[in-house]
Design goal:
The complex is a heterodimer of chains A (277) and B (254). Chain A has 277 residues and is mainly α. Chain A is built from twelve helices and no strands. The chains are: A mainly alpha (277), B alpha/beta (254).
Chain lengths: 277, 254
């Protein structure tokens, strides 16, 4: 190897360690493609706004001004917090219902056939219907959003739970029987690891459904929350405000996705990843 | 009625007049796989069950393991009042994929109220000391079956049930594991049943070989093995017994 080769190799290594010091290769591959999509979307939007020059398509500066305004005034934190609180309560009610229905459906054939029409109905009825009915039934109250969310997402959670329970390996149930594992040990080492992946994907789907239902309820019958703000912006034809609220909530959803669902998923799949090494 | 031990003798496993029927799809009445079947396994004895597929070998093992219930008759395990501790090795290792090799053993040991350290100690005993923290899917088939063997013996078992434990392995690995099983048996001295299609394996590992035939199953032949363990697969006596069992099976097939 010549001196030139050595120095070239060192430069390459230095260069690599230079940018990798700030952004490791794995993380770059994980983040950059999504970031590129966002940049292209924003760029495309800006080009469209400049070409159209219409108040219906505000430019990025206009959207940013609205976003900054709702962030600085505290409106974004308050209303997004209110909406998330409603989602959390609806989620809890749905989860409690889904555990009962999912367990019964997985363990008993008659119960499965009994709940089948309810689950089918629940999965096919649009969130809009639950939102409208709950506003009519319960009026302007917290109950409206909580019940509407629960009705909208409980079927998806129950189906996920039921699938998870049915997917538990019968051969491992025999092992647990032979070695006389306690109920707690069976729950911890057999049932939970088997159903948690199903439950995580069900919860992720349920979260996206819950967000759509709660916004509808807030649009129709409530005076706080992201849906209410979106409706206000719509009435005043403020497209920039509609987009600013959408972006603000999307950021919160992304934080929940990456900071909660993906963290849980990574932990649950740790054994698969380590096995591949 | 078939029986192979005197009624008065103590037994680690005793099937008393067991009947087990199954209804197969397309059949109107259930068919008896076992009827009034009796067999006793003496303490410290390993009895191999050989015979054609579907004859009822695995049913006997499942009855002993409590995975199935007899329609009539009784299956008694252990000699004293304490419930017998069971270890079982299946054809597939049946490990909890999300738990490390050591943890797979420890959860069984905890249930049997055996010291938790036994997980790592048993792994060392089966030659997997360096794999305690490895997940099962990162292990080879032979290594996984070693973990299953370690789990079966970690519970300080009174009885070990072996359901074709080496049939899914290549012959070289199976040979090593048969030697390992002989060593573990000598160290822990449980009683047990071995279901196998491999008559050479039965001749090598068992103290007594029971050849099952018929529908419902009856004991067609019994081969007592007087030689002490460990036996070698190269031993002409092992091969002679293997030949004798093959002849019985060939006669039955004819």
């Amino acid at each position: 190897m010549t001196a030139t080769d050595v120095s070239a190799q060192q430069v390459t290594q230095d260069r690599r360690s230079g940018w990798q010091r700030f952004l490791p290769a794995d993380l770059a591959i994980r983040i950059l493609p999504g970031l590129l999509f966002c940049v292209l979307l924003a760029g495309g939007w800006e080009v469209m706004a400049q070409v159209q020059q219409s108040p219906l398509i505000p430019d990025l500066a206009g959207i940013w001004a609205e976003l900054k305004s709702i962030l600085v005034s505290g409106e974004a934190a308050a209303d997004i917090g209110t909406t998330l609180g409603r989602i959390a309560l609806g989620f809890l009610l749905a989860f409690a219902t889904a555990i009962g229905v999912g367990l019964a459906s997985a363990r008993n054939r008659i119960a499965r056939y009994f709940f089948e029409p309810a689950l089918l109905l629940g999965l096919t009825v649009p969130g809009l219907v639950w939102a409208l009915l709950c506003v009519i039934w319960f009026g302007l109250s917290l109950k409206t959003s909580v019940v509407a969310i629960a009705l909208g997402i409980a079927p998806a959670l129950a189906v996920s739970l039921s699938h998870g329970l049915n997917a538990v390996d019968a051969q491992l149930i025999e092992v647990a029987h032979v070695y006389r594992l306690s109920r707690w040990a069976r729950l911890r080492y057999l049932w939970l690891p088997a159903i948690l992946p199903f439950l995580t994907s069900g919860a992720r789907l349920a979260f996206s459904l819950a967000w759509k239902v709660v916004v509808l309820v807030e649009v129709f019958g409530l005076s706080t929350g992201v849906g209410y703000r979106l409706n206000s912006a719509f009435i005043s034809q403020n497209v920039a405000a509609v987009l600013a609220w959408t972006v603000a909530f999307a950021v919160v959803v992304a934080v929940i996705e990456f900071g909660f669902f993906q963290v849980i998923e990574t932990r649950l799949n740790r054994w698969k990843r380590e096995a591949q090494v | 009625m078939n029986t192979s031990m005197n009624k008065g003798m103590s037994a680690a496993i005793r099937f008393r007049h067991v009947t087990r029927r199954f209804r197969r799809s397309g059949e109107s009445a259930p068919r008896a796989v076992l009827e009034n079947f009796s067999l006793a396994v003496a303490p410290g004895e390993l009895v191999a069950l050989v015979g054609a597929s579907g004859i009822g070998k695995t049913t006997l093992l499942h009855l002993a393991a409590g995975l199935e219930r007899a329609d009539s008759g009784r299956v008694e395990l252990g000699e004293g009042k304490r419930a017998a501790r069971l270890g079982m090795v299946f054809q597939q290792p049946r490990l909890f994929e999300w738990l490390s090799a050591a943890r797979n053993i420890e959860i069984a040991a905890e249930a049997a109220q055996v010291d938790r350290d036994i997980g790592r100690r048993m792994l060392a005993e089966v030659g997997l000391a360096d794999y305690a923290d490895a997940y099962p899917s990162s292990l080879s088939g032979g290594q996984r079956q070693r973990v299953a063997l370690a789990r079966a013996f970690a519970v300080d078992p009174d009885i070990v049930l072996l359901d074709e434990p080496f049939s899914a392995l290549d012959e070289l690995t199976a040979r090593k594991l048969r030697l390992l099983l002989q060593r573990l048996w000598r160290l822990h001295r449980p009683s047990g049943l071995l279901v196998t299609h491999n008559t050479l394996e039965a001749s090598l590992l068992a103290d007594r070989i029971v050849v099952l035939a018929g529908q419902p199953a009856r004991i067609e032949a019994l081969v007592e093995i007087e030689q002490p363990r460990p036996q070698s697969a190269e031993d002409p006596a092992v091969f002679q017994r293997h030949r004798a069992i093959i002849e019985v099976l060939e006669k039955l097939a004819a």
